[in-house]
Amino acid sequence: MFKRPLALMAREGHACTYRCFIAFIGLFVAFSLLYFATHKDVQEAVHLLSSSLSTRLYPLYSADAYAQEAAYLQDGYLSSIEAEEELRRAGGQHQDSVSPVEQGNVSFDELQTSAVGASFNYASSDVLVFLHIQKTGGTTFERYLVRQLDLPVPCKCQPKRKRCLCSRPQDINSSRRSSWLFSRFSTGWNCGLHSDWTELVVSGCVDRYFDSREKGHSKRRYFITTFLREPVARFISEFRHVQRGATWQSSAHMCNGRSPTIEELPPCFEPSIGWTGVTLDDFMSCKSNLAFNRQTRMLADLTTVHCYNESAMPNELRRTVLVRSAKENLMKMAFFGLQEEMRKSQYLFEKTFGLRFNKPMVDMEPQTSPDEVSPEDRQRIADFNQLDMEIYHFAKEVFLRRFELARTGTSIPFDAFASFFRNSCAYYRDVGHVMSSGECASVPAFVFPSTLSMSTKNSHTLRQIVTVYNPYEFDLEYKVLSTAPALYSVQESVGRLKPQSLVDIVIRRNSSEEDGAGAACVDKFRVQVRKLTKPLLVGHSDIVVFVNGTASTSAGACEQQPSGRVDEVPKVASSSHRTTIARRDSATRFRSDQRSDGFHWLLMVVGAVCIVCLWTPYAEERTEAVPSWYPEWLRLTIPQKLVSAYVLGLLTVIVLQV
């Protein structure tokens, strides 16, 4: 009975070969998926490749962490590890070579150590660079730099001229055009109008400018500075400025060697007309308005997020990478001030650089009355500028701690921080003993912010981000504890921090029966850090969480532990971990289901049907050699055969996994 089909196949060698090829493709895909999912050598290769790719971008996490699958958490946040993996999968761009500005950059932390040497020396090759973010008090500070700085050879400012000549002492009477200051009132906008971190630092524009000006290349140290401002007040101030006629149309927004296209950055107004007299609603309705989260964008390295091409990667991933990059770059700066704290900013600048102003700065009063903008509009502005809000809270915590260190005269090196950040000794269940006074707080913890506000009526506030920073030259291990571990879940609650690095921790409040009442209460978190080489040297920093209230609200503990003890918070499984668990559970369920004879026979029947489908003639075969006993419904199309091959491949994977 098989003679006629076999003879037919022999006569149609090309058709048989085609069917074999389709079956081979299906099986090859199936075995390839199984091999890459289980083979240890492939996993190790992925680890090595991922670690090499991540060395330049974020040298914070171990190579093993990079091989995990990257996906979004159910609550919409990305872990630090997932963000980096997703960034690579999305094709995030980053310049392979470090620019001369980045190579010569001197951070605040490095200024405090003797390894760098003396502080800023305007008579040598040091350059002070000011990154001017709109409406943050930068104009006032830049004027003070060129007019009020007490130097042996001050800047020369002539009447009716916007720029001043800030030459080095040895070049004052020579033809060499060397300058120690790169700012609006000294060199002008040579890297673009209100150029950002990407234009100034990443592109190397500042270094190229001085090479051109000094007719040759020399090794320089760069001290980058900036000013920040409370985001809502800054946004309103920019809106008023645009309403009066400002547009900054000539800003190039250079990134990766080009300006954004019209599709990437659509204009909010007709350039020939301008935006004078714009209303607040119209100002906020333009989605491409660069006023939104301007401080974060100008501080971040935009090459890590495809510059201004927002469609190249998921929005949540883009926001996560921008915030992290902005925080890291802020910590790379030699100094940053706050517009609301001009006097303190002046004091910190003088202490950091060893320079003095001959005129005190005055704390700026808000030019826009709070009554001019309704509370509803102010809340809308805050919602639209969530990234800036997070950056500002982080910056304010860092600024106030630095100011206190400068004010109290504490020794500059970080090994002396314990005298200021003196934490009380406490029982630690994981240590198992009470530390002596000599061991207490030997490793101060740097955690920002120190307070969190959550509202059970607003689900967006129930997820908060806390940043842990390691300013030391050695690795740290951290752990997150809480007085109410049952009410919270923390992603990356335990981990390690490499020197001069930071990590963002997502704290999420779980729903509870008490939340429906809306009662005000207070919880506490403790971030405990320890030096890996000396595990008994423990420091900590406490975070107060106000639920349905503020610091001035009288509230009790939400779920206080007995005797004020703190417990470790359950760690949120990353999406990759949850996927692994789900696969493991699925395999377990499959093994139990497999005991059913009916399910076993179903697999065999489906597999046999797929094989038959692959060997039957396809619909296009209309030759006389095809026997009449073949029914029309067995003449399958090519897409149907490909589906059969795919299903057969899936069945093969299932059988081999079991």
From TrEMBL:
UniProt KW keywords: Glycoprotein, Membrane, Signal-anchor, Transferase, Transmembrane, Transmembrane helix
TM region positions: 20-38, 599-618, 638-656
UniProt subcellular location: Membrane
Top-rank taxon, per record: Eukaryota
GO cellular component: membrane
Main subcellular location: membrane
Residue ranges occupied by any MSP domain in the UniProt entry: 448-531
Enzyme nomenclature, EC number: 2.8.2.-
Catalysed transformations (reactions): alpha-D-glucosaminyl-[heparan sulfate](n) + 3'-phosphoadenylyl sulfate = 6-sulfo-alpha-D-glucosaminyl-[heparan sulfate](n) + adenosine 3',5'-bisphosphate + H(+)
GO MF annotation list: heparan sulfate 6-sulfotransferase activity
Signal peptide range: none
InterPro entries the UniProt entry points to: Heparan_SO4-6-sulfoTrfase (IPR010635), Ig-like_fold (IPR013783), MSP_dom (IPR000535), P-loop_NTPase (IPR027417), PapD-like_sf (IPR008962), Sulfotransferase (IPR005331)
Function statement: 6-O-sulfation enzyme which catalyzes the transfer of sulfate from 3'-phosphoadenosine 5'-phosphosulfate (PAPS) to position 6 of the N-sulfoglucosamine residue (GlcNS) of heparan sulfate.
Family in the record: Belongs to the sulfotransferase 6 family.
Protein name as catalogued: Heparan-sulfate 6-O-sulfotransferase
